[in-house]
Amino acid sequence: MRGSLAKVHLRTDGSHGIPAGTLAIAPTLKYLERAFDAAKYGELAQRPYLEITTAGDVVSIHMQSAPYKLRGADWADARADVERIAIDTLAEQFPALKASIRDVRTITPQDLERDYALTEGDLSHGQLILDQMFFMRPLPGWSNHTTPVDGLFLCGNGMHGGAGISGAPGRNAALALLKAKR
C-alpha cells in the first residue's frame, strides 16, 4: 500500500485569506518529484504537495508527502512536524493564516489505519502509481467495474475513477450492473 498521507485540520477565526473551495500547492513537476522522493525514502517532505479545502473558518490540508513508515522517527514525534510543515507551506501563499488559527487536529497515516481500517493509511486502496492508473486500476481489463467472475462488480477507491472518497466508484459500479442486467 505504501500510504503517504496526513491530514491537518485547522479551525480559524475566518481571517485566513484562503478562498473557499479546493486548491493545490504543486507549483512544478520538480517540486512534486522532490516531495514524493522524500516520502519514498521515509522522510517528511519539507516542501510537500498539499491539497487544501476551505469552508468558512475551517481549513483542511491534505498532505500527500507523509509516509506511513518513517525512517529514524515515529509518528508520536512527527505529528508536530507535519503540522509545522503544512502550516508553514500554506502560510507562504496566505500570510494571514498563522494568526487566524485557533485549533489544530492532525491525522497521521497510523491514525488512518487504526481509526478507519485503511491499510497503511492509504485512502486510495492502493498506490496511484503508473501500473495502478486509469484503465489499469485495479488490473488491466477490470477498470469497468466488472470482473471475470459472473455477477461480481467492484467499487471503491481501488477502482479506476475512485481515488479520493467521492462515491463515484459505487455509482459507476451500479451503472455497470444495471447495464449488464439489460
How would you sum up this structure in a few lines?
The chain has 5 helices and 5 strands. The chain is α+β, with helices and mostly antiparallel strands and about 180 residues long. The chain has 2 domains: about 5-120; about 130-180, no CATH class.
Can you offer a commentary on this structure?
This protein has helices at 29-40, 75-93, 97-100, 109-116, 168-181; strands at residues 6-12, 21-25, 50-55, 58-63, 101-107. The relative contact order is 0.16. The protein is of the alpha+beta class and 182 residues long. Strand 3 (50-55) and strand 4 form a beta hairpin. It is 31% helix and 17% strand. It is built from five helices and five strands; from the N terminus they run ββαββααβαα.
